[in-house]
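The freezer alarm interrupted the setup, so I double-checked each line after restarting. Inputs confirmed:
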Amino acid sequence: MLEIYTKNMDGTWFAVACSQQKVVTTSFGETQQSALSHILSNLPYNMSFQVLHNPTNFAEAAITVLKTVYDGKDADLNLQLETADLSVYTKKVLKITSAIPVGYVSFYGAISKAVGGSPRAVGNVMAANPFVPIIPCHRVVKSDLTLGSYSSGGINVKFELLKRERRGFTSSRIISINGEKLVVVPVELILKNHTRTSPWANNKCK
DNA sequence: TGCAAACCATAAC
DNA sequence: GTTATGGTTTGCA
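Predicted 3D structure, all chains:
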């Protein structure tokens, strides 16, 4: 039986769905309803579940990880994620995305070069990411250094997440995961670019 | 800059 | 099966 647990921390609702000591999907949102409905949209249509009022230790621990990542802190990502139902391609994209360190971002195109497929296909995987923000799809941006989009909350949320992940890095680097190489650049580059071009950051529309 | 075409894994018919 | 849809990129005017 799938168990769903939601919790409000510092004004944001976090939600996890777990089964057999594994995380099946996660979410967060402004309201309990938005977090919950996002969770449900990631589940098969008629899967049965129960909403926990008293969390298991595992659910509580999972929520804590969500909150830690959300706050831009370095998290210990030792959670078991249930990926059995995902396609091979999706798993590859999620895996390489999870290797992007805090304080850096990468690009849709860079990821598609590493794992195959096209930038759009990578974007599709991100949009359907079952493990936000544990799998840091907010660290994937467009190659022109603009944010792109963010389906779980919009680009304002993406921007805030990245802002909290600033670590003061100054140069890009290449990380290697399973022999595949991926360029990552300091998140500061994106923040700088965003404040310069964003309509709401400088009070100007265009 | 702005637009159009190519990109390719999924979801929806 | 086939078509439609993107969290994109690139090239060309």
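Quick read of the result. Residues 107-109, 112, 118-127, 129, 137, 140-144, 147-151, 155, 158 of chain A lie near DNA strand C (CB under 10 Å from a C1').
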